[in-house]
Design goal:
heterotrimer; A mainly alpha (118); B mainly alpha (319); C mainly alpha (502); B: 319 residues; mainly alpha; 72% helix; globular; C: mainly alpha; two-stranded antiparallel sheet
Chain lengths: 118, 319, 502
């Protein structure tokens, strides 16, 4: 039988794919954080729907509590992520990461590690 | 709502959620994407109501849509301020992978959704821990099963979660520039005296304060609790600061930092006192109700302050 | 009573210290040292108790699983807790010159932020080693990620901010996969407790009609944890993140942080879901580990900055850890060698933690002496800082796996298991990896011990030099006196670690 739980569970599964598509194809870091939040709420919706599939309709409160915790944790991560993006934009002027994963000058002096090995 | 009409409502709502989510992901204008994300959050909150999860609905509306939305809007505003017109080169940031790669991602993402949906449908019906929670609700100190799980049965999760919020704020502040250390957090506000912001700032806080305190108080018996109440109080505080009625506190203020750690500290303190008496984080049934209220009050205060400061961010460079 | 208090102290002390370090200005270093003392005391109380009574359990709030959350201390957890406490003590002492408040000057940004972040990282690690609840572990991993990302970015330069962002994107993706898997497991089995999940015999056909969902859930959790452990091919974020941070932070990030997700992975497969493991999965994890060993080592050879060499070496050393899956599960049915491989992997995790922290702290000393960490500036450093050069050499001995060191014990156990059970391929990976690590560690060592014409190095305090030496000696001692940790690790060891997976 199709219930609210079935509909929103499948909706959650679809949101996970949608968010994942955004997370993989976007390079703007704020957009990736946004996509991360879409995946997150999709997971929560799927999880919450499993808790609502009880025969009598009374829901299991444990997933609800876990989801509330999860939403708060996701907000904390998003806030730190936004702070990182803004700090990075302030220095580099770009809101996306340089393509080469190994290009970094984090050491006390500018990097020269791309010199050929001696 | 019963039967077919309820199902129809759910189907439309699911379609609206997916549509808003799709726009939030794909709209080219960043500000538009954030607006769609907020709308999306509101729809999701309604879905939680339909699933009978009122506590989650409140949290999603307050935090998922509300506060995350404000955070992202603030970020977009700051982005446009930071990037100079010349450096406002969005070609890189808007660059997308070639169509082939996009199509491949779409196929992979679609199949993952399909597999997950199938796994979801294959799960047998179960009542989970519903009965275990119900059996112990009487001695938990809260009539609201979700609050009982959050503060009592799985209080350790909640304690750590309040610490995660604090850790995010410490991490955020550590991103300030060295010369900004000791300044006031966040954007410099310029609310005109007598303007809309100042009027709202004067009118709304009393109601918000009342709502926040009510949500915490009600949380012990009805839906609500420290996180939802704390979010409302955070919004009130933000409004007051934005209206210029109260200065944004300095990051180095010891008093402010004491407020930030009060919740986790009280929670942990009660937990350790319990450990001395035999059970870590144990709430003896006779004192459970007042202990839960104490923990929730302290948590609410800290959560409100932490959330507001997370939204304010680091000090902006002075003009 | 005293035991449960000591168990609580393992998680409560670093949390309490972190909260205090947030509030009290300019006293972070002192608070951190008090935290070290508290943890050390708790460990001293718990080690004999564990030997005497076996595994110690504590139901938080008095609520037993599945309703509540259980902390459980076994030999494996205690070994990781002790290694982390040793490394943290060293790191916190080494961080004082850079991050302790100076007399007469006001609080600065990084001097405030470093201490709570380090202590929160420690809290998260200890929770990850003790908790048996999959969702509680999720919260612990998130706390770990937030603190670790902030430490990566603490220098505030464009490079370290980019490294922090890249790390965060990977870590967030990993978290989501893990969380989704946990949600599916709970939906199918009504519990989040690893022990109760094990009791349901998931994958054995006894657990009802959730087989497909179980496989998907376990796959998602494994993928999420693999991303967080920086297993090949999810390693790209690691070298810039670990090499861009200040040396004490690098030591924590590289030596400790990947161990949390790895330990959860070990517990998931060997304790909770042993019967779900299939040969394909075990071989896949082993193959990715082997690829990490080879790929990380070759890239380490090609770097010309010391911290990048040490960071790429972490990619390779993490690879060894994943060989435990084919070796302790393995092709050979009912093999007697699984126990050796399992213990070997644990030794590898412990000795890598000690040796890698020593190496990053050595790099910190040399950066002070030279002003940068490019290899060309290292010529003659051994004369100027003999203690540090010796420490680096000892740590290299353990990483390469030469006797007598913890790394040797680890590789010896794993090699014996590989060859005895006829899994020659994994044995070859161990041998080739050892040779490659000798090659990439030889370059900085040879330069340090080379004669320099005009050595002009800044002086470095003896205490800063002594700390990595003590850590490197601990890595050697782990091999010299391997009997004690060996028998400690066996306390509460899951049956599948003896009999093999499947």
């Amino acid at each position: 039988m199709i219930t609210s739980a079935t509909i929103f569970g499948l909706c959650g599964a679809a949101l996970i794919g949608l968010g994942l598509y955004g997370f993989v194809t976007q390079v703007h870091l704020l957009r990736r954080l946004l996509a991360f939040n879409v995946i997150g709420s999709g997971i929560f919706l799927l999880f919450g729907a499993t808790a609502a599939r009880t025969p009598t309709g009374a829901t299991d409160p444990v997933p609800q509590a876990l989801i509330i915790t999860g939403i708060v944790v996701a907000l904390a991560a998003t806030a730190l992520g936004v702070g990182l993006v803004l700090a990075y934009v302030r220095i580099s002027g770009k809101a996306c990461l340089p393509e080469d994963a190994d290009t970094i000058d984090g050491g006390p002096h500018p990097s020269s590690h791309e010199d050929p090995p001696e | 709502m019963t039967g077919i009409s309820a199902l129809g409502f759910d189907l439309i709502l699911a379609a609206l959620i997916l549509g808003a989510g799709l726009f939030a992901i794909t709209v080219r204008d960043l500000f538009g994407a954030v607006v769609f994300f907020i709308v999306y959050g509101v729809f999701v909150a309604i879905a939680w109501l339909r699933l009978g999860a009122i506590d989650v609905a409140l949290t999603e509306a307050a935090l998922g849509a509300g506060l995350t939305g404000v955070l992202l809007i603030g970020a977009v505003a700051r982005l446009s301020r930071v990037t100079t017109p010349a450096g406002n080169n969005t070609s890189d940031e808007m660059r997308r992978p070639p169509a082939g790669a996009r199509l491949a991602s779409m196929v992979v993402a679609g199949s993952i959704s399909g597999v997950l949906g199938w796994a979801f449908l294959s799960l047998p019906d179960s009542t989970g821990l519903r009965d275990a929670v119900a059996d112990n609700l009487a001695v938990s100190g809260s009539a609201n099963p979700v609050t009982a799980v959050l503060i009592n049965f799985r209080g350790w999760d909640t304690l750590l979660e309040s610490v995660v919020l604090l850790a995010a704020l410490v991490g955020l502040w550590s991103l300030a520039r060295d010369r900004d250390w000791g300044r006031r957090a966040g954007l410099r506000q310029h609310a005109r005296p007598g303007g809309v912001m100042a009027t709202f700032g004067r009118l709304l806080p009393p109601f918000g304060l009342l709502l926040g305190v009510y949500l915490v108080w009600a949380g012990s018996s009805y839906p609500g609790g420290a996180f939802q109440g704390g979010t409302v109080l955070a919004a009130v505080w933000l409004l007051i600061m934005m209206a210029g009625l109260m200065p944004v506190p300095r990051m180095v203020s010891v008093g402010l930092r004491a407020v930030l750690v009060a919740g986790p500290l009280v929670f942990l303190g009660i937990g350790i006192a319990g450990a001395m008496a035999g059970t870590f984080l144990g709430l003896p049934p006779t004192y459970a109700k007042p202990l839960i209220l104490t923990i929730e009050a302290a948590l609410t205060l800290s959560i409100a302050a932490t959330l507001a400061l997370l939204v304010l961010g680091t000090p902006d460079p002075s003009p | 009573m005293i035991l449960s208090l000591a168990l609580v102290a393992l998680v409560a002390v670093p949390l309490l210290a972190a909260l205090l370090a947030v509030v009290v200005p300019r006293r972070g270093a002192l608070i951190a040292l008090l935290g070290v003392a508290g943890i050390a005391t708790a460990l001293v109380v718990l080690v004999p108790a564990l030997v005497r009574q076996g595994v110690l359990s504590l139901s938080i709030g008095g609520w037993n699983a599945p309703l509540g959350i259980t902390l459980r201390l076994d030999g494996l957890g205690l070994a990781f807790l002790s290694m982390v406490a040793t490394v943290m003590a060293a790191v916190l002492v080494s961080a004082r010159p850079q991050f302790a408040a100076r007399a007469g000057s006001g609080e600065t940004r990084s001097q405030w932020a470093f201490w709570p972040l380090a202590l929160l990282l420690w809290s998260a690690l200890n929770v990850a080693f003790l908790s048996r609840d999959l969702f509680n572990l999720y919260v612990a991993l998130e706390l770990l990620t937030v603190a670790a990302v902030a430490l990566v970015a603490i220098e505030g330069k464009a490079g370290s901010l980019a490294a922090g962002l890249r790390y965060m994107m990977f870590a967030l993706a990993g978290s989501l996969a893990y969380l989704l898997g946990v949600a599916l497991l709970y939906a199918g089995h009504g519990t989040l407790d690893l022990t109760l999940l094990a009791a349901q015999g998931i994958g054995s056909g006894r657990s009802g009609g959730t087989a497909a969902a179980d496989l998907i859930a376990a796959g998602l959790i494994t993928a999420g944890l693999a991303v967080k452990t920086a297993l090949f091919p999810f390693h790209a974020w690691l070298p810039p993140a670990h090499s861009g941070a200040p040396a004490p932070a690098s030591a924590m990030l590289s030596a400790l942080v990947p161990k949390a997700s790895f330990l959860i992975l070990i517990r998931l497969w060997f304790e909770a879901l042993p019967e779900l493991a299939s040969p394909v999965l075990l071989t896949l994890l082993g193959a990715l580990g082997a690829a990490a060993v080879l790929f990380g080592s070759v890239l380490a050879l090609r770097q010309s900055r010391l911290k990048l060499i040490v960071a790429y070496s972490t990619v390779a050393q993490i690879g060894y850890l994943f060989l435990v899956f084919p070796l302790a599960g393995g092709d050979s049915f009912a093999q007697p060698w699984a126990a050796g491989a399992w213990t070997g992997a644990v030794f590898q995790a412990l000795s890598h933690g000690l040796a890698k922290a020593a190496m990053f702290l050595c790099a910190g000393v040399w950066i002070i002496a030279v002003g940068h960490d490019r290899l060309d500036g290292m010529r003659g450093l051994a004369t100027a800082t003999p203690m540090t050069a010796f420490a680096f050499a000892l740590a290299a001995v353990s990483l390469v796996g030469l006797p007598p060191s913890g790394g040797f014990t680890a590789k010896y156990l794993m090699l014996t298991s590989a060859f005895a059970s006829g899994q020659v391929v994994w044995g070859a990976v161990l041998v080739v990896g050892g040779l490659l690590s000798a090659a990439y560690l030889y370059r900085p060592l040879a330069l340090a011990f080379a004669k320099a014409d005009t050595p002009t190095f800044a002086p470095v305090s003896r205490r800063l030099q002594l700390v990595p030496l003590l850590l490197a000696l601990a890595a050697i001692t782990l091999g010299l006196a391997s009997q004690t940790p060996f028998s400690l690790i066996q306390i509460g060891r899951p049956a599948s670690a003896v009999e093999g997976l499947e």
